[in-house]
UniProtKB/TrEMBL annotation:
Belongs to the ketopantoate reductase family. Catalyzes the NADPH-dependent reduction of ketopantoate into pantoic acid. Residues 2-140 form the Ketopantoate reductase N-terminal domain. This is 2-dehydropantoate 2-reductase.
């Protein structure tokens, strides 16, 4: 039995994959909903597993998938306390580089499996739309989760250098904060001044990532900008959807971390230092 805690965009996509892979699931959420996942080939999968809205109604499972936003992690701990026995692993599907730290005191670090999600998913009126592109979750090599999504559209990809993998994704996430601040989708990067800001921010993030031990290839900041310019204009990002819906933003795990880790290594982060308070104050 697998529990998915937080059945939003990524939780729903993962639940759909796990259902297609033949697992028994329980969907742990603040409210029960009817949710359909529409894949990029146009096929639809309606989630069929039972929903539970009260942690007191669940017991230990074999695997917990945690897919709440980073800043919602503390509020989800009551679920983890009921769903875990001593060794139950928790696959944490969140952006950022601090998966285990966020769960300190609630889940032993050795039971936390950080997952870097490569999938662009947006919930629109009860349907989670998966945009064209890769659907994969990177996890540290050596964990026991490798085959859990076999038989579905979602690939679990073990990586030897997880630090680099997590920072590689985080550089993208930090730069797309520009979408949340401007209220615009990927097309915003075609504005010359925004493109230039995106590149400078990517350079800043790469410097911090490198100091933190990531081994990103030369020219990675330019690569990030090229990828952003190549996206379909309607592509967005989860922090933009939260901004549009007036929800709290996941700013600390995606942008605050650049300033914090930069400061710890003595690396100036002037762009992040301006963006972070704006993201934190945005409504
Ligand atoms: N969307 C994307 O394309 C991608 C997202 N990510 C990352 O994945 C993570 C999840 O993002 P995403 O799926 O977009 O976020 P969503 O906001 O779509 O989903 C989060 C879900 O968690 C639920 N939740 C919050 N608190 C609790 C709680 N205490 N108990 C139970 N459920 C709770 C929310 O419920 P409610 O509906 O009630 O608010 C919501 O349904 C983030 O770290 C994000 O950065 C990574 C790659 C791509
Ligand atoms: C899809 C992507 C890469 C965009 O930043 C993402 O991680 C998110 O939306 O949170």
């Amino acid at each position: 039995m697998i529990a998915v805690v937080g059945v939003g965009a990524i939780g729903a996509v993962t639940a759909a994959a796990l259902e297609l892979a033949g697992h028994d699931l329980v969907l742990c959420a603040r409210r029960e909903r009817r949710l359909t996942v529409r894949l990029d080939d146009g096929s639809r999968h309606r989630l069929r597993s039972p929903w539970v809205t009260d942690p007191d109604q669940v017991g230990p499972v074999d695997l917990v998938v945690l897919a709440v936003k980073a800043h919602q992690t503390g509020a989800a701990v009551p679920w983890l306390r009921r769903l875990r026995s001593e060794r139950t692993p928790v696959l944490v599907l969140q952006n950022g580089v601090e998966h285990a730290e966020r769960l300190a005191g609630a889940v032993p670090a050795e039971c936390v499996v950080p997952g870097i999600v490569w999938c662009t998913a947006e919930e629109i009126a009860g349907e989670v739309l998966v945009r064209p592109g890769e659907q994969a979750i990177e996890v540290p090599a050596g964990d026991a989760l490798g085959g859990v999504c076999d038989g579905s559209f979602l690939r679990i990809r073990p990586v030897e250098d997880f630090t680099t993998a997590a920072w590689r994704k985080l550089v993208f996430n930090a730069v797309v904060a520009v979408e949340a601040l401007t209220g615009r989708r990927a097309e915003v990067f075609h504005e010359p001044e925004v493109r230039s800001l995106a590149r400078d921010l990517a350079v800043e993030c790469v410097e911090v990532a490198t100091a933190a031990g990531a081994r990103l290839p030369a020219g990675f900041a330019d690569h990030v900008v090229e990828v952003l310019l190549s996206l379909p204009p309607e592509n967005g990002t989860s922090i933009l959807y939260d901004r549009c819906a007036g929800r709290e933003l996941e700013w600390d795990a995606r942008n605050g971390v650049i300033s914090r880790v930069g400061a710890a290594h003595g690396i100036p982060t002037p762009i992040s230092d301006v963006l972070v308070p704006l993201l934190a104050a945005a409504r």
